[in-house]
Amino acid sequence: MIGEMDVDSVVEYFRGKSILIAGSTVFLAKVLVEKILRVQPDVKKLFLLIRASDVESAKLRIQNEVIGREIFQVLKEEHGVGFHNFVEEKICPLVGDITHEDFGLDTAKLREVSKDIDIIVNVAATTKFSERYDVAFDVNVLGVKHVCAFAKKCIKLKMLLHV
């Protein structure tokens, strides 16, 4: 059993950290995003890697598929009218795809983001047994390869967690 001291040190560890989450629209990632924002509001940034055509589409997906979900109700009540400002300050949509090298980010964005990230959490995967082989391979194999290659470019990286 994890003691209270251990939990406190984990919560404290996230203070001031920038975290990249790949697969942020899957259930486990939503739980992680909500938990981090609730227990450590002093996290610096949560970069959510989102497949979208542009930043506005990515923001819409985050609104509809992540923060718009019932799991965020406690945070909404806690922050009241300041909820959207809090979320906008903490969550940074990153338009990209793990099936592409460097997530398909342009050089300037890659350079900017790779300087800031302390932690990468990869929960992106396809778990459908009936998935086409090429799709499953791209996400579950090449995606992991791309996450690892991206991690090597993150100069402040302290942790890579692959689920």
From TrEMBL:
GO terms for biological process: lipid metabolic process. Keywords: Lipid biosynthesis, Lipid metabolism, NADP, Oxidoreductase. Its EC number is 1.2.1.84. Residues 21-163 form the Thioester reductase (TE) domain. Pfam families: NAD_binding_4 (PF07993). GO terms for molecular function: alcohol-forming long-chain fatty acyl-CoA reductase activity; alcohol-forming very long-chain fatty acyl-CoA reductase activity. Signal peptide: none annotated. It catalyses: a long-chain fatty acyl-CoA + 2 NADPH + 2 H(+) = a long-chain primary fatty alcohol + 2 NADP(+) + CoA. It comes from the Eukaryota. InterPro entries: FAR, FAR_NAD-bd, NAD(P)-bd_dom_sf. Catalyzes the reduction of fatty acyl-CoA to fatty alcohols. Belongs to the fatty acyl-CoA reductase family. This is Fatty acyl-CoA reductase. It comes from Triticum aestivum (Wheat).
